[in-house]
Amino acid sequence: MPIEEARIIDSNRRQELKTQLDECLREAPKSITLEIGCGHGHFLVAYAAAHPQEYCIGVDIIEDRLVRAERKLRRAELTNVSFVRADAMMLLETLPKAVRLNCIFVLFPDPWPKRKHHKNRLICPDFLNILAKKADFGAKLHFRTDHDPYFQKAREVVAEHSDWELADATWPFECETVFQERAESHQSWIAQNVVKP
Ligand SMILES: C[S@@+](CC[C@H](N)C(=O)[O-])C[C@H]1O[C@@H](n2cnc3c(N)ncnc32)[C@H](O)[C@@H]1O
Questions:
Q1: Three-class DSSP category at 142
Q2: Structural domains in the chain, sorted by start
Q3: How far is the CA of 30 from the centre of ligand 1 (A)?
């Protein structure tokens, strides 16, 4: 695709996303909960039902999974959740300035096991930079995976990042995701944002 055409498509997509976010966050509290790679929405729908005072956004790039997530949301008659189809980085870049992240979940992200694909992993310094810029001081990032090498590497990356500190905190809410159900075991870490406003 010619570069100019790709640029226009990207800019249109960002504008659409901005409109969608402005709309769903109009009456939301200033600090929200975000699940990145929410898949079929099992976790976030249950989490939002148990935390009616919070506003939750689930983001994923796969349309079919979000259709199922939306179905669950309608069945549960919740008004404090929105599902958005977008790349996580684009969502963070498009989030209205006044909106902060207080609680972030990354559950069973794609592990990209081959070395040549490690660059595709979500947890990397650039991603942690932008996440910290959008997060409240003390906001918690919850990470869970069944892939031990990714668990170790992501933990190392977050421990070395100046904006985040590994926290000795309890996992706040349990609800099996689709990938958790398939996994034999899993490991989790929680980090908190240490960037002062
Ligand atoms: C392995 S699945 C896990 C889904 C769900 N969290 C679970 O535990 O069942 C990873 C999910 O992350 C989504 N994903 C991958 N890269 C993403 C990105 N850059 N932005 C948003 N979602 C992404 C995929 O589409 C997929 O639904």
A1: strand
A2: 3-193 (3.40.50.150)
A3: 25
Give pTM, 2 decimals.
0.96
Contacts with 69 (C-beta within 8 Å, 6 or more apart), sequence order: 38, 39, 40, 41, 44, 45, 58, 60, 83
Ligand 1 center from residue 59 Cα (angstroms):
8
CA dist., res. 159 & res. 107, Å (int): 18
Would you state the pLDDT for residue 6? 81
φ and ψ of 52, to 5 deg = -65, -20
Pairing of strands 100-107, 135-145: parallel
**And the tokens for 59?**
């983001």
Is residue 144 helix, strand or coil?
strand
User: What separation in Å is there between the alpha carbon of 158 and the centre of ligand 1?
Assistant: 19
For 135-161, write each residue's pLDDT tens digit.
Answer: 999 999 999 999 999 999 999 999 999
CA dihedral (115, 119, 121, 127) in degrees, to 10, reads 150
Looking at the CA of residue 111, tell me the nearest atom of ligand 1: 1
Give the residue, by CA position, lying nearest to ligand 1 atom 4.
39
Q: Which residues line ligand 1 (CB under 6 A)?
A: 36-39, 59-62, 65, 87-88, 107-110, 177-180
> How is residue 172 written in tokens?
């706040």
Which atom of ligand 1 approaches the CA of 62 most closely? Answer: 25
